[in-house]
């Protein structure tokens, strides 16, 4: 497959991943599907891993990848394929931006999953808002997950499922952008279609 066509496929794949990531981050502002005070929202939600990392920063590489197949640069230095080769090379830079953005989202999600949600729990003397879990100790203990957080209801599965989706989306985006780095390098070295000549 031509490197430009492959990049276009990657671009089409990244767009829905961006949308899902942004929606997950927005939903995390409503723990357990409920509206709570700003200070009672888990800290990692405010890092905007899904909105900025896997969302906004991923839109740029996605749009660049989508445009590579139709790139119609008129060439340079007497070489008509030069424009396409440069476009493939520049796509590597945007793929790198995508890796950074998705990597940021992965790190934020992993930290949030390990730390657990912010919720109202009994600290021994009274109910208070905070982080009752530490070091992911709740992940393999369903009884602990269900009994500790008093409010908002269902916050633990809500937190765990949405940040898990963000983690998976980020890992997929990192992999796709890494593929484009390799694809862009091949396109820059061989032209748009390795073995088939440069097509316009």
TrEMBL record:
The main location is membrane
The membrane topology of this protein is: Multi-pass membrane protein
Oxidoreductase as a keyword of this entry, yes or no, is no
* GO BP: any one term: pancreatic epsilon cell differentiation
Question: What are its GO cellular component terms?
Answer: membrane
Q: Where in the cell is it found?
A: Membrane
**Transmembrane spans:** 12-33, 45-68, 89-113, 160-179
Record flagged with keyword Transmembrane helix:
yes
Keywords of this entry: Membrane, Transmembrane, Transmembrane helix
By sequence similarity, the record places it as follows: Belongs to the L6 tetraspanin family.
Q: What is this protein called?
A: Transmembrane 4 L six family member 4
What species was this sequence derived from?
Answer: Oreochromis niloticus
* Name of the gene encoding the protein in the UniProt record: TM4SF4
